[in-house]
Amino acid sequence: MILLKILLIVFCCFNYAHALEPIKIGVSLSLTGDFQVYSDNQKKGFQLWEKEINERGGILGREVRVIIKDNQSDIKKAQKDYEEFISKDKVDFLFGPYSSLIAEAVFPITEKYDFLILSTGASADSIWEKGYRNVVGLLPVSSKRTLSFLELLLENGIDSIGIISADDPHSVAIAKGSKLNAERLGLKVVTFEIFQKGTRDLKKYAQKARDNEVKALIVCGHLIEAIDMRKAMKSINWYPTAYYGSGGVVSKKYYETLGNDANLSFGFSLFEKASGLPGAKEFYIKYKTLFGEEPTYHSAFAYSGGQILESAITKVGSINRKKVRDMIFSMDIMTISGRFSVDKTGRKLGHHSFLIQWQNHEKQIIKPDSLKTSKAVFKN
Fold first, then answer.
1. Is 367 within 8 Å of 148 (Cβ atoms)?
2. What is the pTM of this model?
3. 70: domain range?
């Protein structure tokens, strides 16, 4: 009888200890290499969410542990990381890597294992055209990224458009979407060029845009392409009426690199502290206090990924991945970065964004009109 009681106590203690094991979430980010700036912002967003959720007692009484690996902006390294997260580290959930280029190589792996992954840093339209059952998108699809800028051009009678893009999936989706939306709005696309990702000298593309009398130039890519094109334009002493970079223009790094030459550049953001969204201002303050810098939308969507996962697990009452996945696909909630819901493919529904312009060393909100902090300024 005594032996039976001892075994019962040991069994109960084992189950209790097991029940209190941390909820492990894996994410592989480009903490070095081409996508370092964006991934560092994401990392800090995840870390802030992890810190706050554990200060509140975790999820279902369990500590949350975000395991972050550096994929060095390398596709094969990222693939290896996610294989290990699932088969070796035995994580409970996954957040996706930064960039559609890397994510498109990772998602077939997570799908093979029937493993839920929240994509907080990839938005190429093609991702949600492949029939994945376990990929949940948080970002609006790439093809709609430049819509507010195109509407601004229409409002101001600027109708000669140039589109120049890197050849990665995310950038190409932006380029094709820009061309389609421009033509729908009655704008003329007089230059459309695609270059190989990693090309640094963009002078010949700037020259072509100038020779074709482009009034508004859209560069589809990431931070490095936006910077390189601005340098190329300066090298030929040309600046269009309006210049837009689809990635990185709103970052501190863009301004630090270009200085005064950053002024007048238009860019895109999905998070601003003035948005009025629930918790956005508080997130901004906590992030800046903890890290000594302003959050970017990459930081905000990483944090939002945590909010969504926390909400789904709490509603399900367990970490059963299938039940959590089904809950996420059925959810319609507000996060610090806006309303979240997805269609049956996992593609985010709805679209909101901010059109930003650098003016006199400051970022100004140009659109939406309800949150505008300044009128757009165009090159004479």
1. yes
2. 0.85
3. 23-140+277-340
Task: Grade residue 137 by pLDDT with cuts at 50, 70 and 90.
Answer: very high
Q: Per the structure block, which two tokens stand in for 111?
A: 């799908």
Token pair for 253 = 């790094």
C-alpha 259/C-alpha 376 separation (Å) is 19
- Do 156 and 255 fall within a single domain? yes
DSSP assignment of 142-200, as one string? GGGTTHHHHHHHHHTT--EEEEEEESSHHHHHHHHHHHHHHHHTT-EEEEEEEE-TT--
Is 152 found in the same domain as 136? no
Mean pLDDT of the chain: 92
Closest CA to 69 of 61, 78, 60: 78
Considering the domain architecture, whether residues 230 and 163 belong to the same structural domain is answered as yes
How far from 373 is each of 170, 262, 362, 368, 377, CA to CA, in Å? Answer: 29, 18, 11, 10, 12
11 occurs within a structural domain = no
Contact 72, 98 (CB under 8 A): no
Tokens 């040991």 locate to 10
